[in-house]
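User
Please review the sequence:
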Amino acid sequence: MSADLSDPISLRLPVEMLKSIERVAEASDRTRSWVIVRALRRYLATEGADILAVIEGRAQIAAGKFRDMDEVLDEIDQIVQARQGSIS
């Protein structure tokens, strides 16, 4: 599986971090780039994804695509009441 690659980028890292990356790369028979890309993918799947979700949510609010929390809670109450009525 071949990924589309960007142009090379320059990145400065703390010396100790680079040493750790190099040790992991050597131990796993991978390149430093492979280790760094894997670490960035993990970041983007967790903390980065949270940040992107906030950005998307703000964009939706700005576009008027949202529901008032009181309306949502009222709808939930109606669903619960209807289910309780069908159980009795």
Remarks:
- The radius of gyration is 24 Å.
- The mean pLDDT is 93.
- Residues 15-87 form one domain.
